[in-house]
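Q: What would this chain look like folded?
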Amino acid sequence: MRKLFLSLAIVFCASLITSVSAQESKRGGKRNFPMEKELNLNSEQQEKIKKERADFKVKVEELQKQSGLNKEDKQAKMKELRNEHQSAVTSILTPEQQAKMKEVNEKRGDRKINKEGKDGLRSKARDMRNKKDDRRMAIRGSKEHRANRMKELNLTDEQKQKIKAENEGFRSKSKELFNEHQTALNNIYTPEQQAKLKDMRKDFAKDGRFAFHRNTRYLSNLDEASKARLKELTENFTKEKKAVELSRIAPEAQKQKIADLRDNYRKEKRQIITEAKNTKENKPV
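A: My prediction, written as C-alpha cells:
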C-alpha cells in the first residue's frame, strides 16, 4: 500500500509541476491549478519537486546509456532509482499534504482501476495468443529436428515400415485408453456435471485454446511451395525474435519490437495461407 501511495504521489506531483509551469507561461505567472490548491504547495516545495524530477530524469538517461549492464542489472538499478526518487518526493510533502494526496488518489483510483482492468484483460488475451504461437513454433521446430536426427540413423525401408506400424499401433492403443478413461470419468460425474463439462469444452473451443490441432490439419493440406514459404517465414521470425531478446535495448522497447515482429509474422502467414487456398480453389480439375 505504501509503495502504491508513493508511486501515485510522484505522478500527481509531476502533473502538478508541469501544469503550473504551463499556466505560468500562458498567464504571466498566475497560478490556477486545482491540485495546487488541494495540496497547498508553497514555492519552495514546487522548486524542490521540480529539481528532484530533473535529477531523476538525468539518472535514468545515464542508466540507459550504460552498455555494460545486462537487462536484469538495469531493471534492478532502475528499481533502486525509483525507490530513491519516491522517498525524496515524499519527504518534501508535509504529513497533511500526504494525507490529502491519499484522499485525492482514492477518489480517482476507482476510475483508473476500471480502465486498467479492461486494458489488463486485453493484454492477457494478447499474451495468451503470443504464447500459443511460440508453443506452436517450438513444436514444429522440434518435429523438424527429430526428423533430421532420424535421417542420421540411415534406417532401411524395412525398419521404417516396422517403426511406422509400431507408431500406428501406439496411437490406436492410446486412443482406446483415452476413450476408456473418458468413460470411467463420465461414470463418476452426474448427468448435470457432464452437461456442464460439455459446455465448458465448447467455451474452450471458442476461445481458440484447442484450435492448434485444427490448424495443423489444415496446414498439412498446403502445397509444398506454400509449406516452404511458411517454414522460411517461421525460421526468420524465430531468428529475429531471438536477436531482439538478446539485445540490450530498453525492456519496453524490446517488448514492442517483438510485438511488431509477431504482428508482421501473423499477417504474412495469413497471406500465404490465403494465396494457397485461392490457388487450390481456382486450380482446374
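DSSP finds ten helices and no strands in the chain.
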